[in-house]
Amino acid sequence: MMPLLITALLLLAGVMVVYVIHVIKERHRADEATEIVRRMVDGDPAARLECNGEGSRARLFHEINSLASVLGAHADAELQAKVFLKNSIQDISHQLKTPLASLSIYQELLADETLDSESRQHFQALSAQELERMELLVQNLLKITKLDADTNILECRVSSVRELILKTRERFALRASREEKNITVELPDETLVVFCDPIWISEALDNLVKNALDHTQPGDTVTLSGKMTAGEVCLQVTDNGSGIHPEDIYHIFKRFYRSRFAKDKSGIGLGLALVRSIAERHGGIVEVDSTLGKGSCFSIYLPHGGKSACERMQQLENPIPTKM
Q1: Are 246 and 266 in contact (CB under 8 A)?
Q2: Tens digits of residue pLDDT in 186-222
Q3: d(C-alpha 324, C-alpha 319), whole Å
Q4: Of 161, 229, 224, 172, whose CA–CA distance to 198 is shortest?
Q5: Would you say residue 101 lies in a domain?
Q6: Which member of 78, 122, 197, 319 lies 3.0 to 4.6 Å from 154 by CB, making a disulfide possible if both were Cys?
Q7: Position 222 in a domain
Q8: If you compute the radius of gyration of the chain from its CA atoms, what whole number of angstroms results?
Q9: Predicted confidence band at 144 (pLDDT cuts at 50, 70, 90)?
Q10: Biggest alpha carbon–alpha carbon distance for the chain
Q11: Is 298 in contact with 286 (CB distance < 8 Å)?
């Protein structure tokens, strides 16, 4: 009887020891988990709970880790948005300083009652030019911001490439005539179409043609064309103007980039950046090939088959309902 009692007591003591060790380990794990969760709350991106194995605890820890990842992604996006906003405000402030300073000087000169009529008209024209520059700056900034922030929904549809080209030429025919420059077209087949937002693609073509006219001389030619190449629709604007300096070729699509070689000082450095944003929002790209002193060729490549960026966006905005 006595040996059995001793054996039972030893077993009970062993169970108690095991239980105490288990409790201590669990408490230690709980303390570790609490510390890791505290680090998560403090924003430590590396803090994660160990969720290997099976059971309810592993599933709980896995969900906590997933929640931390989602919250971290939101925090990163918010930080990027703040940085973007800060940089945009700095860019706008910097770009507005010059025309505002010029306007201030012109207004002081115009206030001089002794100013002759010819000089007054000259400074009034300069003031109007600076106001136009400021208006263009604000308009282009708003357009780029809409594209960057995805707040503008592309309204894509099947569009005729010939129609896009002809309407672009029509919009610049008067300016080209006044500047004694030529706008020609190389029209593709009538069947060539592209799935795009025609308003935004027209905006991109307009900026390319304006850029070409800004860097050509009387008698020069700007050519619009469209073609099918390697499964993509290619829209091109070619000119035989001043061309682009090799130093600038990799920077011209950056916002507010102004070449130190540029003779035209009235530009604001947003037109080509807007072209790039429009092309990328359509799932395409824009490229340039240029020879200094001989001219430039800008090419917008847009997807012809498959799902373009605007098609995918439309599906996200109007998802196909799932069966319940």
Answers
A1: no
A2: 988 888 999 998 989 999 999 999 999 989 999 999 9
A3: 15
A4: 161
A5: no
A6: 197
A7: yes
A8: 32
A9: confident
A10: 129
A11: yes
Tell me the CATH number at 240: 3.30.565.10
Per residue in 150-166, pLDDT (tens digit) is 655 678 889 999 999 99
Distance in angstroms between the alpha carbons of the first and the last residue of the chain: 68
Residue tagged 């507010």 (tokens): 256
Rounded (to 5) percent helix, strand, coil in the chain = 55, 15, 30
What are the pLDDT digits (tens) for 36-78?
767 766 777 777 767 776 767 677 667 777 777 777 777 777 7
94-128 burial string, b = 16+ CB within 10 Å, else e?
A: ebeeebeebbeebeebeeeeeeeeeeeeebeebbe
Per residue in 226-275, pLDDT (tens digit) is 999 888 999 999 999 988 888 888 888 887 776 666 655 455 667 888 89
Alpha carbon separation from 311 to 3, 68, 133, 153, 197 (Å, rounded) = 83, 32, 35, 11, 10
How many domains, in total, are found in the chain?
1
Checking if the pLDDT of 108 tops 90, the result is: no
The domain containing residue 184 runs over which residues? 157-311
Q: How far apart are CA 208 and CA 165, in angstroms?
A: 12
Q: Is 15 a member of any domain?
A: no
In single-letter form, the type of residue at position 49 comes to L
* CA distance linking residue 262 with residue 275, whole number of Å: 19
Instruction: Say if 225 falls within a structural domain.
Output: yes
Q: Three-class SS of residue 303?
A: strand
Looking only at the bridges linking them, the beta strands covering 221-229 and 285-291 are unpaired
Matching residue, tokens 């100013």: 115
